[in-house]
Specification:
The chain is 36% helix and 19% strand. The protein has 241 residues and is α/β, with parallel strands linked by helices. The chain has a single domain, classed as Acetylglutamate kinase-like (Carbamate kinase). The strands form two sheets. A nine-stranded mixed β-sheet has the order 4-3-5-2-1-6-10-11-9, sandwiched between helices. Strands 7-8 form a two-stranded antiparallel sheet. The chain starts with 9 loop residues before the first strand and ends with a strand.
Length: 241
């Protein structure tokens, strides 16, 4: 599936689990929101781009939050991994309803609902135009879904990792709290780490830096942002070497 006029041919989109949640304390998975996400994925696919997604599980359960309430961290992290599989299945259902073929590949074997992650199989799916949903994190506790996204992006040879957020890039401070916070258009991995910017965790940064995968942090909820990034427009913040 050759891309037409796109800067990136193969992308990995990292969504937070919260992106699937309904507004104002609504359901943890809002069917209308998931349907809108699927419609956006279809528009990207129609540009001839190979797409893989990693969704977090924070709309359902976060391991470190469970630890604060007395749940063993390892058990909590596995619970969070299972939450990502639930989100992946919801996204798969919605994406297939808009006419795209998909596969859920899980780091935790769950053969009734997902394929196990096997790199060669994943690459074959991408080659024939299927949208991939990587679930189950890395399959190991103590690793975030950001790290899982960076790992999968490295394994499949993604041209870019798109980090979807609620703000339009990376700022020097929290723009919701600091009026004079400055948005960066470009920043290096090392600058992001040295400035302690809360973009992704250190393990995820290290994987992207070592494998030369640029990260674009952008406002997912602004319509047309993904398409603009793929066309090479200056959207969000580019984190690279």
């Amino acid at each position: 599936m050759a891309s037409t006029g796109c800067k990136y041919k193969r992308i990995l989109l990292k969504l937070s689990g919260e992106a699937l949640r309904g507004p104002d304390g609504g359901p943890c998975i809002d069917a209308e929101i998931v349907a809108r996400i699927a419609a956006r994925i279809k528009r990207v696919a129609e540009m001839g781009v190979e797409i893989a997604l990693v969704a977090g599980g924070g709309n359902i359960f976060r391991g470190y939050q469970g630890e604060q309430k007395g749940i063993d961290r390892t058990s909590g992290d596995y619970m969070g991994m299972l939450a990502t599989i639930i989100n992946a299945l919801a996204l798969q259902n919605a994406i297939e309803h808009v006419g795209l073929d998909t596969r859920v590949l899980s780091a935790i074997e769950m053969n009734k609902v997902a394929e196990p992650f096997i790199l060669r199989r994943a690459l074959k799916h991408l080659a024939v135009g299927r949208v991939l949903l990587f679930a189950g994190g890395t399959g190991n506790p103590y690793f975030s879904t950001d790290t899982a996204a960076a790992l999968r992006a490295s394994e499949i040879g993604a041209d870019v990792l798109l980090k979807a957020t609620k703000v339009d890039g990376v700022y020097s401070d929290d723009p919701a709290k600091v009026k004079d916070a400055v948005r960066f258009e470009r920043i290096t991995y090392m600058e992001a780490i040295s400035k302690s910017l809360k973009i992704m965790d250190a393990a995820a940064f290290s994987l992207c830096r070592e494998n030369r995968i640029p990260i674009v942090v952008f406002d997912f909820f602004q319509v047309g942002t993904i398409e603009a990034i793929l066309r090479g427009e200056n959207v969000g913040t580019l984190v690279s070497g």
